[in-house]
Amino acid sequence: MKNMYNQLGISEAVCNYSDRMLNNLEERFKVIDEVAEYNQLKVIAAMQKNKVAEMHLSGTTGYGYNDDGRETLEHIYADIFETEDALVRPQITCGTHALNVALAANLRPGDELLSPVGKPYDTMDEIIGIRPSKGSLAEYGITYSQVDLLEDGSFDYNGIKNAINERTKLVTIQRSKGYATRPTLSVERIGELITFIKSVKPDVICMVDNCYGEFVEKIEPSQVGADMVVGSLIKNPGGGLAPCGGYIAGRKDCIEQCAYRLTSPGLGKEVGATLGVNRDFYQGLFLAPTVVAGALKGAIFAANAYEKAGFRCIPNATEERFDIIQAVELGTKEGLIAFCKGIQQASPVDSFVTPEPWAMPGYDSDVIMAAGAFISGSSIELSADGPIREPYAVYFQGGLTWYHAKLGIMMSMQKMYEKGLLKI
Ligand SMILES: *Cc1c(COP(=O)(O)O)cnc(C)c1O
User: Fold this and answer.
1) Ligand 1 contact, 93 CB (< 6 A)
2) Which of 88, 224, 274, 380 has the fewest CB atoms within 10 Å, i.e. is most exposed?
3) What is the mean pLDDT of residues 109-128?
4) Could you give the angle at which helices 12-23 and 278-308 cross, rounded to 10 degrees?
5) φ, ψ of residue 168 in degrees (nearest 5)
6) Residue 95 C-alpha to ligand 1 middle, in angstroms?
7) For ligand 1, is residue 294 a contact (CB within 6 Å)?
8) How confident is the model over 230-248, as a mean pLDDT?
9) Is 174 in the pocket of ligand 1 (CB under 6 A)?
């Protein structure tokens, strides 16, 4: 085994250090495997219940009428998320698009949108109109209010109660911390928040941005009261195989609005050709629980290896996980660059490419990104990025298999070790 690692460029020192770290992780990996097993059975049960057949795996063209594969997959998503209905489409470009469809479809001029968990993910700024943007909800006369989490990360129940008014129509709750510093919310905590919000205003629609959270736990936010859960198929539920797409699962009336917004009033769910993607959507969903487990193991391995070497990790080495994102504060520009070079060099695709920091539009400092993915931009595949500024934190996620995630992290350590930035 060590020979293989040596051939790939990993030194004896990094191999031995990794082995030591892994010795302590057996118990935690067992818990992850158990969740994966549970979710694997959940997915298979939903596929069997809906009588998936070979004909469902091929797609339609043109209008996409009578696309049994598409409709059956939407029933499967609804069963997995325990919702009345779902919209699972390649026409949904990405997570941001899915969120925009869910919001724009269910809000009307004069309504107010509330985020009770602080500022949402960056790309939501322009959907909402926090940053003025063409076509934003603000342009349609939909207002926005926000209640931040308290200092200790708990919900500001008083603030939330005061923020809910007669115009509050929809509440958006982001499960993952994304690239913010607050903790990721467990499904249980999301449930507590929704229960409280519904006690103040029963008819408010509670939507959860579920990105990076699917299959990390045994239950999903729709099982604790969320009216809609929204996500991207080039993250967790696509299992690395879905080439594009997004999903919205939820209450029938909410999903109906989403369908009319996504296609057209009058057409709704009845149209939308799946071309050739159905097989990948099905097979990706089938693989998703074990893919997510591999990504989680990678994140925990990294947190342990880097924390022991003196770097601050968020979440830390021992914390329970509710999403697949790991941040490591590397402290120096050289460290951040070396880390990303390691991730890139360990990739199955574009391993020979050297990532460099660049001035990415929309960011106030240079950003470095590493990804060698089969699907462009897929972040369920091993990928890392970070802004070139204090505290030089790298954010990384994914790995289609645990062994690839492990190699990527070992290679990142190797690059830092060679630069004298990692003492092991
Ligand atoms: C990735 C992500 C999004 C946006 O998804 P894209 O597919 O990148 O458009 C939204 N919210 C959260 C929490 C995310 O992690």
Assistant:
1) no
2) 224
3) 95
4) 100
5) -65, 110
6) 5
7) no
8) 98
9) yes
For ligand 1, whether the C-beta of 121 sits within 6 Å is yes
Measured from the CB, is residue 172 less than 6 Å from ligand 1? no
Q: What separation in Å is there between the alpha carbon of 357 and the centre of ligand 1?
A: 22
Report the C-alpha gap between 187 and 118 in whole angstroms.
17
Distance 96 CA to ligand 1 centre (A): 6
Averaged pLDDT score across all residues of the chain: 96
Structure tokens that stand for 210 in this block: 């579920």
Q: Answer yes or no: is the C-beta of 211 below 6 A from any ligand 1 atom.
A: yes
Residue 85 CA to ligand 1 center (angstroms) comes to 22
pLDDT tens, residue by residue, 262-290: 999 999 999 999 999 999 999 999 999 99
Q: Identify the residue whose tokens are 């949402």.
A: 120
Give this prediction's pTM.
0.96
> Which atom of ligand 1 is the closest one to the Cα of 175?
13
For residues 121 and 350, give the distance between their C-alpha atoms in angstroms, rounded to a whole number.
28
| Single-letter residue type at 178 | G
Assess whether pLDDT exceeds 90 at residue 360. Answer: no
Question: By C-alpha distance, which of 289, 272, 170 is closest to 230?
Answer: 170
* Cα–Cα nearest to 396, from 307, 338, 324: 324
The span from the CA of 102 to the CA of 261, in Å, is 8
Structure-token pair, residue 40: 């694997």
* pLDDT tens column, 139-173: 999 999 999 999 999 999 999 999 999 999 999 99
Residue type, 242: A
User: Hey, which of 115, 175, 232 would you mutate to test ligand 1's pocket, going by the most ligand atoms within 8 Å of its Cβ?
Assistant: 232
Q: Distance, CA 289 to ligand 1 centroid (Å)? A: 19
Residue 338 is encoded by which pair of tokens?
Answer: 């070396």
Contact, 65 vs 270, CB < 8 A? yes
Amino acid at 364: D
Q: How many other C-beta atoms are found inside a 10 Å radius of the C-beta of residue 66?
A: 9
**Which of 119, 175, 211 is the pocket-test mutation for ligand 1 (most atoms within 8 Å of CB)?**
211
CA–centroid distance, 57 to ligand 1, in Å, is 27
Label each residue of 301-322 as H, E or C. HHHHHHHHCCCEEECCCCCCCC
Tokens linked to 97: 């698009």
Is the pLDDT assigned to residue 362 strictly greater than 70? no
